[in-house]
Amino acid sequence: MKKVLLSGGGTGGHIYPALSIAKAVRRQNPQAEIGYIGTKNGLEARIVPKEGNIQFFDVEIQGFRRKLSLDNLQTVAKFLRAVRDCKQYIRDFQPDVVVGTGGYVSGPSLYAAARMGVPTLILEPDVLPGLTTRFLSRYVDTVAVSLSGSEKHLTKAERIIHTGNPRGTEVVRANAEAGRESLGIHDADKPVILIFGGSRGAKPLNDAVTEMMPKIREARHLHFVYVTGEVHYETVTANIKDDITNLTVRPYIYNMPDVLAGTSLVVGRAGASTLAELTALGVPSIMIPSPYVTNNHQEANARWLEEQGAGRMILERELSGERLWETIREIAEDADRRRQMSETARQLGRPDAAGEIVEELERLAGKVS
Ligand SMILES: CC(=O)N[C@H]1[C@@H](OP(=O)(O)OP(=O)(O)OC[C@H]2O[C@@H](n3ccc(=O)[nH]c3=O)[C@H](O)[C@@H]2O)O[C@H](CO)[C@@H](O)[C@@H]1O
């Protein structure tokens, strides 16, 4: 397999799995050429170029509204234009296989590829497949699912394989020491508590963290890494005094695999990639699922983790600085409990996911060429 064209966007949960696949492809064939179809204004336009050596093709696309609306006519027009652009990119790049990892942009890319007879695979990261996967499932050659249960919503798919999320593979290869160093944490024995609200930050979580700041300042035996999300950074940091020595605040973290590998406890949202990362590494967590997602799927994710004993869940409507602090304290200060949660989490992980996906891509590429 020499040329792979990836496509996924909007949030980290769709971009990072695609990049993990790119890395796994290159481990097998360092000469492989990788292309990426994304939107100019999406997070992918910032993240993908940082990987280096990936050709970026941009398309314009917008999502469908669930209600009947005039906007949807415009969406259809944009979709058709995007399909035309993708066909041109595919003709230029000549990929052996096209891979989608979700987000609206995967729609035209995979649809165009399937129509042109180029082998296609889509990865579904969540238990409840999104609109794009449901639409594409009848056109693509393979749907790779991350969590069992997805398959029953994808009855039109020709072939479904269970792989897990490739982000799991990437984090187990990460370097914990480099992660801590990059944040200026030099004490190897100090438990690190990483707080982040998905790839874009979460205001309700930030409010709770602001409320517990006096407690954080006192807990010198712990180190807190607090990722606010780019858009919230200025407002949040304006209220934090800069003399808190056991706290590192960042708007965003680009070397998350290394940072996660050096983390003792994560506090955050329950998106699919985050879950894959925590379970592959065996990091205990306190999840505050986002209630603003389709079919409340993050609560299902968080509940799944809690029921197995790998994490704790606090619903956003019950979140307060005090409640969060108590839960952090219970786990952070009990090393045995952390070890137990960590072991349980690790048993749920799928560290081989990327390799399994690459194997399927090889099979698909070989089928046609
Ligand atoms: C709000 C929303 O709609 N979220 C959805 C979105 O994922 P969303 O991007 O919100 O969340 P995910 O947990 O899936 O992915 C976040 C990714 O960003 C990384 N990260 C995060 C912060 C940071 O500073 N640096 C960094 O690298 C994390 O390590 C992770 O790899 O798509 C997922 C997959 O369909 C869904 O499960 C989520 O429910």
Describe this protein's structure.
The protein has 369 residues and is of the alpha/beta class. The protein has 2 domains: 182 residues, Glycogen Phosphorylase B (Rossmann fold); 176 residues, Glycogen Phosphorylase B (Rossmann fold, 3-Layer(aba) Sandwich). It is built from 16 helices and 13 strands. The strands form 2 sheets. The protein has a 7-stranded parallel beta sheet, with helices on both faces. The protein has a 6-stranded parallel beta sheet with strand order 10-9-8-11-12-13. Strand 11, helix 12 and strand 12 form a beta-alpha-beta unit. Helix 1 packs across helix 16 and helix 12 crosses helix 15. The longest helix is centred in the first third of the chain and has 23 residues. The protein is globular, with a radius of gyration of 21 Å. It starts with a strand and ends with a helix. The mean pLDDT is 94. The site of uridine-diphosphate-N-acetylglucosamine (UD1) has 24 residues, from helix 1 and helix 12.
Features:
alpha/beta, 369 residues, Rossmann fold, cell cycle, 2 domains, seven-stranded parallel sheet, six-stranded parallel sheet, binds uridine-diphosphate-N-acetylglucosamine, undecaprenyldiphospho-muramoylpentapeptide beta-N-acetylglucosaminyltransferase activity, membrane, transferase
